[in-house]
Specification:
Length: about 750
């Protein structure tokens, strides 16, 4: 009997659904745009008929502010026109791919930059969680880039490599879900796991060793275990400084050689500290990643590359399989350049007071872009195909050295001297000199937000990306727990974004041309973040100061145009709140999220723009300030209780305190006028705004008036803000009398 031949369609590896709210969103977009146009039209007619200088100035201010708000609303609409959600079917992988031997190799990059702000023990935890993926070990290579050039970090990794040989088989045998040791011991009782107590003791011992070395700041001889280690640490001679040192590449685990305690092969683990020299700019994280691209090309050259920040540990051992569900799908488009998983965080307080989750940036907006050409790259949790770093999908632009080509097959073992020599060469500071690394190849240079710039550039070249948001977070990271740190991080992003806006790759002009108008708008939404400052400042000060002087700037309550304002304000807020809550947020988190949007508009967006301008003028620049991941216990307690942390006398707090005082004074004036029986008809809109301002400023009043802890508002900020408020009131008085 001859066998019957059937053509079986392979089972699906992933499915995509367009969210049901799409039609509603589109209809709403038409209605809301009509309302916006009506308002702008009204402003223009008022401007044409204005008779005094003061009204001309205020109308122009409102016109500009409302134009900015409208533009930003249009950009958010791009996320709402075709939002999608994706699902994967990991169980079908075996039927599509056959044996695990056919899984592709993956190179994992972890970046760290400072042993004092990013404790080596945390970096080690991230690395261990990634080494323990449920994936054939011989296919995984973990590279650690140490921009801090620190022997302390290398020491921690020697220890980690030893511990990994026990940790990895332990996780696999016990099917442990939390493979970051610190998280595992925190969340699980060890008694229910085979050897749990023993492993915990080993971990604690390692932790004590690493932390005592880090505390001391040097590695004394009793901590050095063998000649290999001695030879490695000898590189830190008297001339070795953080900003000036030769490349250090140390293979800590070699897959073909090292076995775990159960005799299975280990993944590769390689420490890389690229050469630093004062003669060459190092281009921050993008420079570190490009070095890793080259070093990994020479050693392993896996077709898939995962980039990870040192504080972002893996929270799900199945993530690589999930990623494969896309890359192994025969129907997936050949121009798919990267798969972005959302950045999620651990240790967020319940109300998320600093909106550190960045739900819109990391979850909602990428889901919206997924239905277009795909999400932005956000720096961590992103799986690239190596080819995306070398030209467009149809036109590769390759480096001179054949060993760096994405299709190059590595045949020699990674400890081979020839291989290592070449790796050192490509990690040298001068290697990129006169090359196009950072422009046509690799991660982009020229912006402090190298992630945003790199993704944008790849999309403009015709690559697509994809967003996958699994229920169990794939990665969990640390977040800033003081307002100062949160704003500082945001300020740095703003500088980076403005660098993109003022480059050739402006998302609106250049981007729209090459990616289509909707993608152009979506990218613009982030890129133009700093201009939120304009309307936020206007609406935080102008109506309030006018109220203090009894001048009406909005229509009377009985006027139909008042309804237009009410509609525009409330409906935008309601839509924003719905979006947020549909993405599993609570109402309280949303309230804090909108407050942080205002706070950023008043501080970090403004200060970022100022610093960007200063940098442009060539005066000074602070560069990439790494966010501190060190935990202060008192601060941490206040954070867990949802208390705002001011503490340091930063100029970024001045506008916040000033707005809080101005709104309070305006609201109090309004109430007094009302109690006095004055005619309030034209002032209700302003009263409403001042009241909203007061409600939002509540944590600021607390920090200014009745708190005594270290995180209260510094006196000097209160004094400056009070003086500023007085000055503004005088100005308001003069303006209203002109
Ligand atoms: O010269 C540098 C500076 C930073 N880093 C690393 O870059 C990562 C991000 O730095 P961090 O201080 O944590 O910045 P964040 O603002 O928290 O990071 C967000 O913003 C960055 C862009 O500004 C992106 O690169 C990150 O992926 C994204 O999570 C960390 O792992 C650092 O070790 C380097 O490797 N070299
Ligand atoms: Mn970070």
């Amino acid at each position: 009997m001859s066998p019957t031949i059937t053509t079986m369609t392979p089972p699906p590896l992933n499915t995509t659904t367009v969210l049901r709210r799409t039609t509603l969103n589109r209809t709403f977009a038409v209605i809301y745009s009509t309302a916006i146009l009506t308002l702008i039209h009204h402003h223009l007619t008022t401007l044409l008929h204005s008779t005094t200088l003061t009204t001309t100035i205020t109308t122009t201010t409102f016109l500009i502010s409302d134009l900015v708000l409208s533009f930003m609303w249009v950009t958010t609409t791009s996320f709402r026109l075709r939002p999608t959600s994706r699902n994967v079917h990991v169980n079908n992988l075996a039927r599509v791919l056959g044996s695990k031997k056919d899984y592709p190799k993956v190179d994992i990059f972890i970046c760290t930059a400072d042993p004092y702000k990013e404790p080596p023990m945390n970096v080690v935890n991230t690395a261990l969680s990634l080494l323990a993926y449920d994936y054939p070990s011989e296919k995984v290579s973990v590279y650690v880039s140490d921009d801090g050039g620190s022997n302390l970090t290398l020491f921690a990794f020697f220890e980690a490599a030893k511990f990994a040989k026990t940790w990895v088989p332990f996780c696999r045998e016990n099917e442990v879900g939390d493979r970051c040791p610190e998280a595992f011991f925190k969340l699980n009782g060890v008694s229910s796991f085979n050897d749990g107590a023993k492993i915990k003791a080993m971990y604690e011992k390692m932790k004590i060793r690493v932390e005592s070395v880090v505390d001391r700041g040097s590695i004394s001889s009793e901590f050095i275990e063998n000649e290999v280690q001695q030879k490695a640490f000898d590189k830190w001679d008297s001339e070795f400084t953080r900003h000036d040192h030769p490349a250090v590449i140390q293979v800590l685990l070699e897959s073909g050689q090292e076995k775990d305690i159960k005799g299975h092969p280990m993944p590769n683990l390689i420490y890389v500290s690229r050469e630093k020299s004062k003669a060459y700019t190092h281009n921050n994280k993008a420079g570190a990643l490009n070095t890793l691209l080259r070093v990994s090309a020479v050693l392993t050259n896996a077709p898939i590359v995962l980039t990870q920040d040192c504080d972002m540990y893996s929270n799900d051992p199945k993530t690589l399989q999930q990623m494969l569900c896309f890359y192994a799908d025969p129907s997936i488009s050949h121009d798919l350049g990267y798969i972005q998983f959302p950045q999620r965080f651990h240790g967020i307080n319940k109300a998320d007071i600093y909106a550190s989750e960045y739900k819109r940036l990391y979850v909602i907006n990428p889901g919206g872009m997924d239905g277009l050409s795909g999400p932005c790259y956000v720096g961590s949790g992103c799986f690239f195909v190596r080819r995306v770093f070398f030209g467009s999908p149809s036109l590769p632009e390759l480096p001179d050295a054949r060993e760096l080509w994405p299709d190059h097959v590595v045949k020699k073992p990674i400890r081979n001297q020839e291989v290592l020599d070449l790796a050192h060469e490509v990690a040298s500071a001068s290697y990129e000199n006169k090359s196009t690394w950072g422009s046509t190849m690799g991660f982009r240079y020229g912006s402090l937000s190298e992630d945003f710039f790199t993704g944008l550039h790849q999309h403009c070249r015709g690559w697509k990306s994809l967003f996958f948001h699994p229920k169990r977070p794939a990665f969990l990271g640390d977040l800033p727990i003081s307002l100062f740190d949160a704003l500082n991080q945001n300020r740095r992003w703003c500088i980076g974004l403005l660098e993109v806006v003022f480059s050739k790759y402006n998302p609106l002009t250049f981007g729209s041309r090459f990616m289509g108008p909707l993608m152009g708008l979506a990218y613009s939404h982030n890129a133009f973040w700093p201009i939120w400052s304009i309307p936020i400042f206007t609406y935080s000060f102008v109506p309030q100061l006018a109220l203090i002087n009894g001048v009406s700037v909005f229509p009377e309550v009985t006027n139909t145009r008042f309804l237009l304002y009410i509609f525009l304000f409330f409906v935008a807020y309601i839509q924003d709140c719905l979006d947020f809550m549909l993405a599993d947020g609570t109402f309280q988190q949303w309230w804090n999220d909108q407050r942080m949007w205002l706070i950023r508009g008043l501080s970090s967006y403004l200060f970022g723009s100022i610093e960007f301008s200063i940098k442009r003028l060539g005066i000074a620049s602070k560069g990439f300030h790494v966010t501190s991941k060190v935990v202060d216990t008192d601060l941490s307690k206040r954070y867990d209780n949802g208390v705002f942390e001011f503490g340091v006398p930063s100029p970024m707090f001045v506008p916040l305190a000033t707005v809080a005082i101005v709104n309070f004074v305006a609201f109090a004036f309004g109430i007094l006028k009302y109690l006095n029986g004055e005619n309030m008809n034209g002032l209700y809109g302003q009263m409403g705004l001042a009241c909203f301002g007061v409600a939002n400023s509540w944590p600021i009043y607390e920090a200014m008036v009745w708190r005594n802890d270290k995180g209260r508002m510094p006196r000097v900020i209160i004094v400056i803000s009070t003086l500023l408020t007085l000055a503004f009131c005088v100005l308001g008085l003069i303006a209203s009398s002109v």
